User: Which sequence fits this backbone?
């Protein structure tokens, strides 16, 4: 896909997931969003912050339970730097405490593992800026 979106570039999506198998599944699933995108996957929140500083992303998908900094702390660190991207947390460690921490960090969407690929794609589409959705509908008729 080479068409640019209304932002002048494909949607930039950062995945922070320390499980390579889950990361590959999500990367494969991304083909279903139906719009031009650039996908970057990293294994740690710290690496995610470094990549974000190099060039910000349009959407963040992160695991909650990461080695080192967790996904909620990553989101808070981005907010402290002035970045407020749409965010999706995926976690196998669902609890009231994790949900509360996600709510306090203003996480936009929250999914538990395991998840269905179709559900993941729908959540991602809901998080995309409306201009991207309009562009997708124009592409798909």
Assistant:
């Amino acid at each position: 896909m080479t068409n640019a979106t209304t932002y002048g570039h494909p949607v930039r999506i950062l995945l922070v997931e320390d499980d390579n198998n889950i990361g590959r599944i999500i990367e494969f699933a991304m083909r279903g969003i139906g719009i031009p995108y650039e996908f970057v996957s990293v294994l740690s929140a710290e690496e995610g912050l470094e990549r974000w500083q190099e060039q910000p992303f349009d959407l963040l998908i992160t695991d909650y339970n990461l080695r080192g900094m967790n996904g909620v702390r990553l989101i808070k660190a981005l907010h402290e730097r002035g970045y407020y991207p749409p965010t999706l947390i995926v976690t196998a460690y669902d609890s009231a405490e994790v949900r509360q921490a996600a709510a306090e960090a203003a996480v936009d969407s929250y999914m538990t593992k395991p998840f269905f690929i179709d559900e993941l794609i729908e959540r991602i589409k809901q998080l995309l800026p409306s201009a991207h959705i309009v562009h997708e509908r124009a592409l798909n008729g």
Q: What stands out?
A: The longest helix spans residues 117-127.
